[in-house]
Amino acid sequence: MTIESDPSYPAHWEADVVLRDGGTARIRPITTEDAGRLVSFYEQVSDESKYYRFFAPYPRLSDRDVRRFTHHDYVDRVGLAATIGGEFIGTVRYDRIGPDGRPASEPADEAEVAFLVQDAHQGRGVASALLEHIGAVARERGIRRFAAEVLPANTKMIKVFTDVGYQQKRSFEDGSVHLTLDLEPTAESLAVQRAREQRAEAHSVQRLLAPGSVAVIGVSRSGAGVGAAALRNLRDSGFHGHLYAVNEAVTRDLLDGVRAYRTIGAIDAPVDLAVIAVPAERVPDAVAACGEHGVQGLVVLSAGYGESGPAGLARQRELVRQVRSYGMRLIGPNAYGVINTAPEVELNASLTPAPMPMRGRIGLFTQSGAIGIALLSALLRRGEGLSSFVSAGNRADVSGNDILQYWYDDEATDVALMYLETLGNPRKFTRLARRTAAVKPVVVAKGGRHTPAGHVVPDTRLPEATVSALLRQAGVIRVDTVTELVDVGLLLAAQPLPAGPRIAILGNSESLGVLTYDACLAQGLRPLPPQDLTTAAAPADFRAALAAALASEDCDAVVVTAIPWVSEHALADDLADALREAVAEVPGKPVAVVHVELGELVEALSATRGPSPTPASYAPYPPAPSNAGRDETGAAAEQPPAGDRIPSYPAAERAVRALAEAVRYGQWRRGLAEGGYVPEFEDVDEAGAAAQLAGLLAGVDDAAVLTLAEWDARELLARYGIGVRSALPAPSPDAAVRAAGVLGYPVALKTTAPHLRHRADLGGVRLDLANETELRRSYEELTDALGKPAELQPVVQAMVPRGVDTVVSSVIDPAAGAVLSFGLAGVASELLGDTAHRLVPATDRDAAGLIRSIRAAPLLFGWRGSDPVDTPALEELLLRLSRLVDDHPEVIGVSLEPVVVAAEGLSVLSATVRVAHPPARGDLGPRTLPSY
Fold this sequence. Notes:
Layout lengths: L14 E4 L5 E6 L5 H9 L3 H8 L8 H8 L6 E8 L2 E11 L12 E8 L8 H15 L4 E6 L4 H8 L5 E6 L2 E7 L4 H23 L3 E5 L8 H11 L5 E5 L7 E2 L2 E4 L11 E4 L6 H11 L3 E4 L9 H16 L3 E3 L5 E4 L6 E4 L8 E8 L2 H13 L4 E6 L8 H9 L6 E6 L5 H12 L4 E5 L17 H10 L3 E3 L2 H13 L7 E6 L2 H13 L3 E2 L3 E2 L6 H13 L5 E6 L5 H18 L5 E5 L3 H8 L41 E2 L2 H23 L11 H12 L8 E2 L2 H9 L8 E3 L3 H11 L3 E5 L13 E5 L2 H15 L2 H4 L1 E5 L5 E10 L3 E8 L2 H6 L2 E5 L4 H9 L18 H17 L3 E11 L4 E3 L2 E5 L17
Helix pairs in contact: 6-11, 10-14, 11-12, 12-13, 14-19, 15-19, 16-17, 17-18, 22-23, 26-27
């Protein structure tokens, strides 16, 4: 059913969800067209489950039951179904009830809720997902509590209710357990929801990266083409599971040494992962065959989707819908593939030919196949291995968010490297990245300021600077290029985090040491004077100097610089050994090496085994099979332990940039231990604000944005303890004098016309007018210079204590949610973009960091002998505004400008507030996959 066939049908309740085992299901409202599906579903439920649902034997549904369970008004009676392949696997419904427990309508705010899950799908988290979604629906319809009656023996359903994290009451009445759940989200319910989200999405990726069997669909008989290349790479990687080739025209049992079948349905064994490499027009048939065979996940290498234009984009959306309808996940389309170097898996389901990457501690995700090739080549050339690699192409389903969920608790991954062209949902990404960055580094190179073809994501109004600020807030290490991505990843994977910014520099070139010193200063580090060992220094001299520097309490990290000796090749191994010995003798501090034309030293320091692969080995199609990068058994080689690898760089700037990022990340990690909290303000009138907003938006079109009148804005802000100074209109000189009489001298005379608002530089403001004479003279000067009063819209406002003019604002971005911003008022700050940002809700640490992170922050703290301003009052204002927009999603934009911060206290002189009907679902809503 659609909105067209039933205007009351709530299409926004439809959602795809990831279940506990990593499979997917679709949750949607039950409609009158579902009678057959409901009967079929009920027939597949066991007698025991039916008894638990109805408290009595109930072998079949009557016609009256079917009608009752499929006819809903979507307000007082709502039913949702979880479906796979279009068939029901679970249902939930609520009926609004009054205080007497009988059916009721609004304003009753309680409902009775009940579930039924097909036995074959119990234990997959279906009921938990349905409870999240029916809870969100109920809140949307004004229901605040659920009541449920459960038989004591139905322990699984009792656990669903008790584990959800809502505040609840429990009693035993008339032989059943009576549960009452308060549906207001709590910190505990949100934590439960996000923990379930993480486990489910991580499991869904794990099924893609560690399949027990793989089928490649579209393997040519000639051995040419993408499908054949993918099959060879899987075969040559030493994949530990079962491998199958599929070609509808195959006439022999084997293709390229692999068992071959005409269709995937002909394989008489389960298939966990299918790699699809057929033309786009044939992909739907392949997906349907995979779904019917029970395949868990797909890697679609085929192109011709969103990257090819509107028709391809429509084809891509239909692909996602079809894949999810079978409960599968999808990497791609237009993907480069996946790699998992785990010794029990050794999967190379990608277009990356042999040799298989070494087993290492770096996880790599890219949206671009070409960038993926470059990154693989750069990492392997410098002796670094991988734990896993995902190149998602158009990432129509599985995205960087899913991979972060997997890496979060993946013991094989110590460092996460990501090349992203779009963030999709920045708010969810920063939430996941923050949690992951708390346990392991997350390094991101973000390419492109615009959405590339094929990457369909919600529009965002965030400027690039804001995105960077939000990433930094989440602890993400943001780099600008793929070269920096590799540089930083190498250091973090091989070396410990520095304890501070003090850097020792030593080497056999005074000039290279000075360049390194300058680079440290440019990155905000605190370098010690370089130690010149002279060009005559031998490896033993390097060892002694490095050991001494590492043992010193005056430094937190060391940069070693080296230029060639006459006999470079003879000494490279000796120098690498000497440096490693010093690190082993005094461990615990990071070391980086800057070299000039010392290629042999690079290889020696990385301690690679066997010949290093060259970029040319990553051509789209493989050369002859090779054992490079594999041990004597043919398995992927294990890279040396981190302590044996010292990262080296061909330029001082690159080494220092990587080290500086590690220093900043270490500081962020240490700051997490200090915590932060969102303060509660006792004087906040949340209920009054909600009622005011409801009244203001009554009768306003759903898509309209309302800018509040000045008095409405002042009233709303006052409910959160934010006072705005009154400004009285002055349409004439006499009116200005009367206004001044009300406010008291001295006063300010200001224009409020849109083209002059907040533009003191244009002469539209007159300050410190002490009497009527000065006020009338200023009024005349203002109108003579800038225009008639009707154009200028002048106002009179009481003077406030002098201070620093600032701007505090918040805006709701379609993708990121609420963002809190701060900067100084004035053209200079606007021109330079000197504004800082934090996600809402902001903690006390966020507010303190926000005002200190702008470049002009010294003006707030007594620059050049001026009086410091009241920054605690400014931090409180930021936290109060954050609380307002977090409590009320109707508030989509607030601008407080100027906010004059004095030595004691502050004054908000002007406020603009924009409101709109809130979206039906937000980041705090139930778990759901993106629907692009």
